Amino acid sequence: MPGMGGPAATAEIRKRFPSTRVLAYSAHREKEFVSGMLGAGAAGYLLKDSLFEAIVEAVKRVASGGSYLSPGLDEPVVAALQGRSRNELGALTDREREVLRLLAQGKTTKEIGAELRISPRTAERHRENLMRKLDAHSLADLVRIAVRAGMCRD
Fold first, then answer.
1. 103 is in which domain, residue-wise?
2. Do 62 and 96 lie in a common domain?
3. Could you report how far apart the first and last alpha carbons of the chain are, in Å?
4. Given this model, what pLDDT does residue 84 score?
5. What kind and span of H or E run contains 27?
């Protein structure tokens, strides 16, 4: 990108248009690029060599308010992004951990409610509790925490 890198452009977009969802589309697999984009507020990171179906899935998830992390990222890259240890998530209930894992997979609170057989409002309350307990200020913050804790991989 001429004159501005992806993280700087993402941060500027999020600053000017906070409701805009950003999906990074990059050939770079290195942790610095992935964490830079997620840290700047991208809701997802998609590798350029992804299959068409993955591209469609990523766009759908991000557009619907979810998140996406390309399955093509190498395990060492994902492991390197695990800045928070599982012990830092120790204050979470089992249900909150499950909700966090599903959020990291790009599920909406409505989808989480259906999967866990709870109301969408209850799923939303779990999300609010997660944000408070983890000092997160957005869904992107929660996703970054889940990614770093290794919760986004099945």
1. 86-148
2. no
3. 33
4. 41
5. none
